[in-house]
């Protein structure tokens, strides 16, 4: 049992804990600050929650790229996208069936598939350079602008006004902007520390155990940085806020590819691990296609959630068997 208390495991455990605390604090502070500015609750869920829960992946990939571990930087994004769909939505759907907003689904599903295809294209190309990074960020900016315009138009409709009045009525006390902003900044700081410890521990673990950093990035680091999404989606499912549970995962997966890989490419261009073409990027693509197929009729049921969880168990089992 001595290996359990080795330095890499202590660092990764501490990093996990800080990522959960930082991610949750960041999302809470950012959402409160947006409410204080009277921003649409729907827009908060699509943008701030998605960006907020993806912050651990961003910081982790940037630090991994600068540390010369492209396998962790790339594997973190691909593994997080796989875990978001198969593990997180699978668990949320198994706990409670998730109805899906058809209006948002028609907008977000094509972007999710486009981002997935772009990630696969970058791996096939073999390198994540600044041109690709700029392209990814341009598509992400266009998506956010389209989303903003659509949500503003929807809010002006009678149905949108009714939903916003209901959301405002549930808030007994309006949050203050500056305390909320400070809370979000604190969450970012905690997330940065947690990501640094997690990457350092993961790199040391892979070197000591003779496991490639790509496998570590696809599993340990990916699940660790996806914990904010896991907490958010499970809590949302339990509170019957299905739009938050589903939108959080879809939005995070879009941001993971277009935002995180885009920013990482601008900061530190890295080679794409060729071994990911054997299985991992295709599992990511299959999980995205399965999600779109499952919710095409406006619902993710318990049986489908169980299938997603089983697929994730099989994937992780295969990684462990072939490591």
Would you summarize the structure shown here?
This protein has 323 residues and is mainly α. It is 82% helix and 2% strand. The strands form two sheets. Strands 1-4 form a two-stranded antiparallel sheet. A two-stranded antiparallel ribbon has the order 2-3.
Characterise the protein shown here.
With 323 residues, the chain is mainly α. The chain has a single domain (2-322), classed as A middle domain of Talin 1 (Up-down Bundle), CATH 1.20.1420.30. Helices cover 82% and strands 2% of the residues. It has a two-stranded antiparallel sheet. Helix 2 packs parallel to helix 7, helix 3 runs antiparallel to helix 10 and helix 4 packs antiparallel against helix 11. The radius of gyration is 19 Å and the shape is globular. The protein starts with 6 loop residues before the first helix and ends with a helix.
What is the percentage of strand-forming residues?
Answer: under 5%
CATH H-level superfamily: NCX, central ion-binding region
- Report strand order across the widest sheet: 1-4
* Contiguous helical run count: 12
Question: Quaternary state, please?
Answer: single chain
Q: Main β-sheet: number of strands, strand sense, barrel status?
A: 2 strands, antiparallel
Assigned CATH architecture: Up-down Bundle
For the residues shown, what is the average pLDDT? 79
Order of helices and strands: HHHEHEHHHHHHEHEH
CATH class wording: Mainly Alpha
Helix share, percent: over 70%
Count of discrete structural domains: 1
Using DSSP, what is the number of strands?
Answer: 4
Q: Radius of gyration from the CA trace?
A: 19 Å
Poorly predicted runs of 5 or more residues? 1-5
Please identify the structural class as seen in this structure.
Answer: mainly alpha
Shape: globular
How far is the N terminus from the C terminus?
21 Å
């Amino acid at each position: 049992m001595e290996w359990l208390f080795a330095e890499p495991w202590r660092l990764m455990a501490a990093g996990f804990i800080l990522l959960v605390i930082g991610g949750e604090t960041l999302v809470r502070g950012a959402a409160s600050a947006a409410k204080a500015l009277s921003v649409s609750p729907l827009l908060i869920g699509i943008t701030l929650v998605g960006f907020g829960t993806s912050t651990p992946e961003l910081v982790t990939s940037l630090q991994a790229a600068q540390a010369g571990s492209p396998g962790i930087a790339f594997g973190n994004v691909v593994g997080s996208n796989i875990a978001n769909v198969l593990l997180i939505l699978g668990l949320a759907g198994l706990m409670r069936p998730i109805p899906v907003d058809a209006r948002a689904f028609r907008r977000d599903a094509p972007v999710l598939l486009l981002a997935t295809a772009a990630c696969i294209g970058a791996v096939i190309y073999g390198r994540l350079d600044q041109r690709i990074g700029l392209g990814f960020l341009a598509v992400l900016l266009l998506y956010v602008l389209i989303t903003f315009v659509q949500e503003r138009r929807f809010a002006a409709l009678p149905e949108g006004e009714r939903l916003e009045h209901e959301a405002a009525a549930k808030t007994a006390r309006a949050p203050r902007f500056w305390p909320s902003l400070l809370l979000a900044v604190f969450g970012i700081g905690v997330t940065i520390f947690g990501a640094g410890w997690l990457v350092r521990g993961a790199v040391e673990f892979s070197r000591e155990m003779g496991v490639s950093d790509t496998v570590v990035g696809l599993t340990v680091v990916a699940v660790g940085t996806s914990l904010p999404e896991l907490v958010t989606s499970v809590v949302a499912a339990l509170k019957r806020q299905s739009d938050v549970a589903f939108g959080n995962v879809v939005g995070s997966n879009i941001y993971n590819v277009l935002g995180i890989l885009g920013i990482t490419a601008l900061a530190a261009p890295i080679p794409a691990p060729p071994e990911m073409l054997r299985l991992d990027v295709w599992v990511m693509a299959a999980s995205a296609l399965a999600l779109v197929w499952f919710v095409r009729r406006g619902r993710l049921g318990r049986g489908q959630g169980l299938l997603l969880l089983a697929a994730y168990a099989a994937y992780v089992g295969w990684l462990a068997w072939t490591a």
